[in-house]
Amino acid sequence: SGLDPIFKYIDEQQNEFVQRLKEWVAIPSDSSEPQTWDKVVRMLNVTADKIKMLGGNIEFADVGSQRMSNGQLVHLPPVILAELKKDPKKPTLCIYGHVDVQPAKKEDGWTTDPYTLTEINGNLYGRGASDNKGPVLAWLHAVEAYQALKQEIPVNIKFIIEGMEEAGSNGLDTLTEQRNMTFFSDVDYIVISDNIWISKKPALTYATRGNCFFFVEVEGQKQDMHSGVFGGSIHEAMTDLIALLDSLVDSRGRILVPGINEAVAPLTEEEEKRYQGIEFDLEAHKKDSGVTKFLYDTKEEILQHRWRYPSLSIHGIEGAFSDPGSKTVIPRKVIGKFSIRQVPNMDPSEVEKQVTKYLQKLFAERNSPNQLKVTMPIGAKPWVANVSDPQFVAGRRAVQTVFGVDPDLICEGSTIPIARNFQDVTGKSIIMLPIGGADDGEHSQNEKMSRSNYIQGTKLFAAFFYELSQLPQK
Ligand SMILES: C[C@H](N)C(=O)N[C@@H](Cc1c[nH]cn1)C(=O)O
Ligand SMILES: [Zn+2]
Ligand SMILES: [Zn+2]
């Protein structure tokens, strides 16, 4: 086909493409703490340089400041808005991605250094390899392939690349509103590749869960105390917090906050049947994840609880003694962190009220003199696409061209916070076109992307440009 020279170029350049991913992974652009936002900015500069080399116009859009939990106001990293040369006769595709990463330390249990991309048995290990540096580079390499062969890219291309996705995409929602009539006005399609397949088969994603992230702070004394001197005679902040955290979810994974489960859209018969038809190998999932016993026994229940029911996870406690050894301390202030994944018909502002009211009631029952503060720094809504949108036809055809199979049509249990905002504010067609493998281990130790997914994924994106251009013009 006409795409063959492009695919050949991508195959020939694959070592160079892997080398570039190595350079990107080497930048520890962890967005979880302002202390490392300078690395996020460095990563955004490197990304912008690459887009400039492809002839792109770049704007570093300012998205203001964020008030941190300690009251400090910190300037956020900018968002890259970019555009390649425009031809008004072609449709315009806007590619969203992020170049920040989750935190990673070798001592967390990585086999290799998280910031040194290391290839083992065809897998490229490194923080951000799959989430989301690999896919962002794959888009840029797909553009590069057309340009290197002096072939016209069949669509106009815009980019939105941010460095705060893992921290909730703060500021990007307002920027989207501000630029709706300008940057977004000529956009026909928005594509996001920031998630994974559910099996070895390629997939198109039409829904994601949202996320409400909570901080529960319990403050006791002015300083940490000796547990031999004060233990037994004071209300300990950590004891209060553990009681609160233990009241959120039961051992069967059921959320205990009143109102949460009641809000969830009921499972229809038609939807239930759809789950039976989904190819999902539970044994392979167990093997890949290392989970020996799930909360549910059937593939249908597991997928439903990953895609269409809320879940509550407890992530950590700031201020708790967590080093090795035995320090007999009573921490003065502790902050529990948990999040609740959001599904239709949940509303993050309602969830915030429900959680706050519930925790305040439980805390009051403890008669503790300590101070309780509940905040929700992230409140991202779930996203559901219109699957009859022509963009899904282009996605399916591109998968068929590169992989020779029909893609699975799947949902995503995790969250791309800005997806729902793009949909609500711009009204544009959105698709998720993942290239990450089911066993990539995003956010985990030993995150990886296979060389094959990275390179075939680059071809998929090149084919997607072509297939979009073949759709009837809007
Ligand atoms: C799906 C995406 N690659 C991702 O990992 N998103 C994060 C975003 C998030 C949600 N709450 C806070 N950050 C995720 O789903 O955890
Ligand atoms: Zn991501
Ligand atoms: Zn992520």
From TrEMBL:
This is Beta-Ala-His dipeptidase-like isoform X2. It comes from Huso huso. Belongs to the peptidase M20A family. Pfam families: M20_dimer, Peptidase_M20. PROSITE patterns: ARGE_DAPE_CPG2_2 (PS00759). SUPFAM superfamilies: Zn-dependent exopeptidases (SSF53187). Residues 207-365 form the Peptidase M20 dimerisation domain. It comes from the Eukaryota. Keywords: Carboxypeptidase, Hydrolase, Metal-binding, Metalloprotease, Protease, Signal.
